[in-house]
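Hi Q.,

Before the meeting this afternoon, I wanted you to have the flavin-adenine dinucleotide prediction in hand. No need to reply - just skim if you have a minute. The sequence and ligand are here:
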Amino acid sequence: MSRTMTTAEAISEARRCLNCARPTCRTGCPIENNIPQFIRALSEGNIGSAYEIISERSNLPAICGRVCPHERQCEAHCVLTKKKCGIEIGSLEMFVADFAHDNDLKPIPPSTGQRGRVAVIGSGPAGLTVAGDLAKMDFAVTIFEAQSEPGGVLLFGIPEFRLQKDVVRREITELLHLGVEIRTNQLAGVDFTVDDLFAQGYDAIFMGTGTSLPRTLDIPGKELTGILTATYFLRTVVLADSGKLDESETVLHTGDNVIVVGAGNVAMDAARTAVRRGAKNVNVVYHKSEDHISALPSEYNAAVKEGVQFNFLKQPMAYLNKKQMRALNNIRRHPCKADETEVAGLLLQNITQTADGQFIAEGGQEVMPCDCVILAVGQKPAARIVSTTKGIQVDDRGFVITRERPYGMTTRPGVFSSGDVVHGPATVVLAMKESKKVAAGIAQYIDAKKLLADCVE
Ligand SMILES: Cc1cc2nc3c(=O)[nH]c(=O)nc-3n(C[C@H](O)[C@H](O)[C@H](O)COP(=O)(O)OP(=O)(O)OC[C@H]3O[C@@H](n4cnc5c(N)ncnc54)[C@H](O)[C@@H]3O)c2cc1C
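Predicted structure with the ligand bound:
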């Protein structure tokens, strides 16, 4: 996990870099940031030049410095990592980006917008990357975002303790300096359609709408109150923290017993947030064994350290209400209406892992009491745009189908897409990597279209 460094610490860390002839750190970075060059500039004390080098490939360095899984990417490939003293590349990237913001460095001039007009739907890492790259290529870009503020999961998903919202807002402001226009409270498929945008004269349209529909568990008791999805929970916390939602509407109460279902990074964020919101006990329930969890080891270890309890090899079978819990425990009490409407426990099937690695239901069942269940079992795309636009095909799970040439174009000519809505829930930097290629595809498409139009005239 990245840490904040002083200037002296950052320069001395940069000076440890071996300047390898074959810099494997760069190959470990999905967007191929020129890591050796920026570290060299930093080691010479030239922080402005280090920022300029980073800005060539990334529009979101302060964010990437904080939330990229560096331990699996650039830092994993640093030759010093084998000797357990790898360069802290994520912390250096974060230092350089923060320094540039603090000192108002703007290495890239704003777009003149002369090369063409592009509408970008969605302002998560995918939309922001496409917008930034196209502005740098001299296109006029307008972002249409459904929420009241841009940022997607960066703003409304990843919790404050891992990614400060002022950092997200600051980094998005840099896009405004590049000439990108952002319109919020604009829900594509409801407030306007893709065809409306073409009619307004946009040369191409980009969809970076992510996976906004959370998956749930289709088990008995799913209608009880107190069962919520992790993305909803995290969003309400951001809204409450920024004063846009009353605390009483955030569902979780101090002293609650919370169960989080799932063991990916989203589950870790939900569990750690529940601890910070004053939950008495936070239990993560996962149907496989510890070595199968998809959360980063650093996130898992942080959750364990903060007191989150992990219950592996347990499959949720049914949500139980208070009345059912009392019956199980042989407790008699005067009944009230909430007894049958609020979740009070989770029935779990124990799972056994066989010698050949299969997971089978074996070992009986148990009941875990709770006041609240948070589901972190995956997300899928909403269909607002594809259902209101002719010609955009999706696969059988609802993910948008795109082509290789021009890169990222959907089955509807002129409409492009990338990020989670294409490849499924993944990482910020994967959405950025794909979106950089799609930005190049959009530029190629618009240039070709204009050239053809010139030939016909
Ligand atoms: C809780 C959580 C924690 C995570 N932590 C990390 C992490 O630490 N590191 C990491 O690398 N990755 C992390 N991820 C994954 C990462 O955030 C995503 O892979 C990434 O945000 C995907 O980017 P995107 O732009 O495709 O989608 P999103 O970030 O989901 O952005 C989509 C945007 O489109 C907007 N939108 C949707 N539909 C419409 C519409 N019809 N009209 C207009 N706008 C629309 C949405 O409001 C949203 O702003 C996390 C994800 C979650 C949920």
